[in-house]
User: What shape does this take?
Amino acid sequence: MADIQTATATPAHQETPVIRRADYLPPDWRVETVHLEFDLDLSATHVTAALALVRNGEHDRPVRLDCDGALPLTLEVDGAPVLWRSEGSQIAFDVGQPSATLTLTTQIAPDTNTQLMGLFASNGMLCTQCEAEGFRRIIPFIDRPDNMAVYEVLLRADKARFPVLLANGALVDTGDLDDGRHYARWHDPHPKPSYLFALVAGDLVATRDHFTTKSGAPVDLAIYVRAGDEGRTAHAMQALKASMAWDEQVYGLEYDLPVFNIVAVSDFNMGAMENKGLNIFNSRYILADPDTATDYDYDAIEGVVAHEYFHNWSGNRVTCRDWFQLSLKEGFTVYRDQCFSADMGSEPVKRIEDVRMLRAAQFPEDAGPLAHPIRPDSYMEISNFYTSTIYNKGAEVIRMMATMAGPERFRQGCDLYFRRHDGEAATCEDFVRAMEDGAGLDLAQFRRWYEQAGTPQVQARLEHDAASGTATLHLRQNFAATPGQADKPLMPIPLRTALIDRDMKAHRGETLVVLTEAEQSVEFAGFARAPVLSINRGFSAPVNLDVARSAGDLPFLVRHDDDPFARYEALQQLVIDRLIADIADMDGPGAAQSHAVSLDEIIAVFGDLVSDQRLDDSMRAEILSLPTEAFLGEQMLVVRPEAIHAARRALRKAIGSRLLDPWRIAHERASAVPYSLSREARGARKIKSLALGYIASAEAADAGTIAFEQFARADNMTDRQGAMAVLASMQADVRETALDSFYNRYQGNALVIDKWFSLQSGSAHPQVYDQTLELIRHKDFTLTNPNRVRALYWPFVSNQAAFHEASGRGYDLLTDLVLRLDAINPQTTARFIAPLGRWRRFDEARAARMRGCLERILSKPGLSKDVTEQVVKSLE
Ligand code: B3K
Ligand code: ZN
Assistant: This one.
C-alpha cells in the first residue's frame, strides 16, 4: 500500500520564535536621526521617512529593519533604489558603507487598525501607540529600545477634520497648505527609542495651564479632549502640576521641554502612555467630575497622570536596553507613583490598596503557569509581559531596597542612577549597581529578587523564656517551584518587626530583621512577659507569612498595633482563619482543626472598630472590608467557590445583622457630610457605602429603601455607584428602576456606561450569568472598544461564584469572547487567558472544563501570537 502522508498545518506555537534575554547583542546598525512626514488620512496615511543610518562597529552584515504590516513602497539608500528581501518579521538589505541616508515610504490604513497598535483611528481622530513594538507598524525600523534617535516630524492633514496636529517635543513651525490642508512641524531634541514616538491629529479642545520648574524654566501644559469633555480635565491638570512639583522635591528631577501635552482617547489598550512630551491617555484616566467619577476614579487619575509624568525620567531619560529590562522603568515608576499618591492622600490607606492589588493580581500570577521573574528570561510576545509581576512586584522590589537603605541613602542611590545613565538605555543590573554604589547597600544576594519567580513563604514563631526574659524570633523561608525554576536559592527578606508589650500595649521601637538564611533566629532581651509579635509591618516584604500565634494575639493587634497596615492585616487574618474554619466545618462537625477565634470575638472586634475614634473613616472602611472570595480561594489548596461564597456571605450577614445599629448610625452620620473632595468627606462616602453593604447583607427589611434613597439623593458618583452596587445584587423591583435611571441619565457618556455594564456583571445577583449574556447583546456593547470589553467581562470573570459555576458555562462565556476578540485585538484578548490558566487550583471536574476551553482556543486556526503564548504556557 502506498504511504500516504497527511498534510497537517504546524500549530502556531511551534512556529513562534522565543526571544531570550541571554541572546542580547548590540544592534548591527543604528538610526541616529529620524525625519518623518505624514500625510494623514483615516483610511490612507502616507509616510515618508529619512533615516540617518550608522553601522555599529566593523562588519559586513546587512541592515535589518523590523516590519509589521507596513512594507516599504519605496526604499532608497543615498538616493538610489535598493532591493530588499524579507527575513521573517524583518526586511534586510545591504549597505556597503559605514553610514548612509535611508529614505522610505509606506502607506497605512489607520481606520482598519483594530489592534490599536501603531497609528490608529478613534472617534475620527488619529493617534499612535508604539510601546512595545508598534512603531514598526508605521514604518520598517530598528524598532528596539536601545536605538535612540532625534526625531523631527512634519504632519499634514485636512484642517477642518484635523485642526490639532501634535507630536513629541516642541512645535517649530505651522501653516496652511492648498486644498484646505495645513501642517505642523515638531522637533524633539532628546534622543529617544521608537516606542516613545507619538502623534495625534484631530478635532480637539485644550485645557491649558503653566508650570515653572525649580530652575525657572516655563512649561506650557495642555490636556486635549473632545469638545464637551473640557469641563472634566481640572483634576488631571491638578495632578500633573502636583507630580511635576513632587518629582522636583522628592527626587530633584525637573521637566526638560517647554511643552507637556496630554491627549485623551477613548479606544486604548491600556491606561496611558508616556511618549516624550506627548502623553496619550485612555480617557478614563483623564476625565472626571463629581457627577461622573467616583473618589476611586479621582485617585486612579492622580496616580496614572503621575506615573506617566514620572516616566519622563524613569523610562524616557533613562530607558531600557531591551524589553527584558521592562521592570527597570515600570517597577521603579510604580514605586514612585505609589509614594506620590501616599503623600497626596493617606499613606496607610494607599499601602493597603497597593497590597490588596498585589495579592489580587500578582500573587496568583506568581503561583500559576504564567509566573515569571520581574526580569524575565524569555518571551514570545512582549505585550504579554506588561504584567502585575513586572509592575507591582517590580515596585515591591524597589521598595525593599528603599526600606533597607532608608530615605536618604535611597535618594543617593537614585541620584547616582540618573547621573550615571542619563541619555542611556540601561539594565536592571545598572540600577542595582547604582544602589550599591550610591546607597552603600550590599545587594549580592538581593539580585535573586530579579531572577526568581514565586512568592516566598515565611514562617515565624516567637518563643519566650520567662526566666531570662528573652523573646526569640524564629524565622524560616521556603519557596514553591515555578515554571522552569524547581530549586530556588535563598532570598534576603526584610521584615519590619516590633514586639508589643501586652500590658503597656506599646513597643520599644521597630527593628528591621533581614532574613537571609533558610532558618534564622533573633533574640530580644528584657521581656518579663511574652510580647505580641508584629511582623512584616507596612508589608515590608512581598511574601506569604505564616505566624504561629496564640488565640488572643490577632484581636490584640487589631486593637493595639500602632502600625495601621498591621492592624488591617491582623483583622484580615482573623477573618480568613474564621472563614477557612467555617468552610472546613461544612464537611461535617469537627472537620475544622483550627484556632480561629469565635464569631462572637470577630463581631466584638468589628463593633469596636466601627466607632473607634482613632481611625479616620477611610482607614475604618479599609479595615472593615472583608477579603474577596478570590483571595480566600488563594488560601486554599483546592479552591471551593460555592463553599467560599456561602461562608463569606454568612459572615457578612452576621456582621451586618449583629451590628445593625452601629452600621445604621455610621450610614446616617456619613450621609450628613456634604460633598467635597476633602479627606473627611471622602472617608465619609467610603464608610457610607460600606455600611450600606452590611445593612443589605443583614437583609434588613428596609435595606432596599435605604439603598434606593442613597441612589436617588446622591449628588455625586461615589454615592450613586456605591448604592447601585448594592441594588444590583438585590432581587427587588428597585434594582431595575435604579439600573434604568442610571442608564438613561448617562446614555452617551461611555465611561459611565462602562460602570453600568460592570455593576451588573460583577453583582452577586443569582441570575448574573443570564444578565451578562443579555448585556453582551446590548446595543451599547462592542468588541472594538477595549474599555467596554473589560468593563463587561472582567467583573464577571472576577466574580468567583458566577465564573466558576459548576456547569462550566462561565468558562464557555469567556472562551467565546476570546475566540471572537482575538482577530480584532489580540493584546486585549490575551489578558483574559489567565483566569482559565488557574485550572490546577480547582477540583477535577472544573479543571477538566477549564483545560477543555484552553484546548478549544488553541485549536483555532490563525490564533494570535499573544493568545497562543498564554494558552500554551497555561496548558504546560
Ligand atoms: N508604558 C506604558 C505601557 C505600554 C503597554 C504596551 N503594551 C504605560 C505605562 O506603564 O506607563
Ligand atoms: Zn509605566
Notes: The pocket of (3S)-3,7-diaminoheptanoic acid (ligand 1) is lined by residues 131-132, 270, 272-274, 307-308, 311, 330, 383, 386 (CB under 6 Å). The first strand starts at residue 19 and ends at 20. The chain has 29 helices and 32 strands.
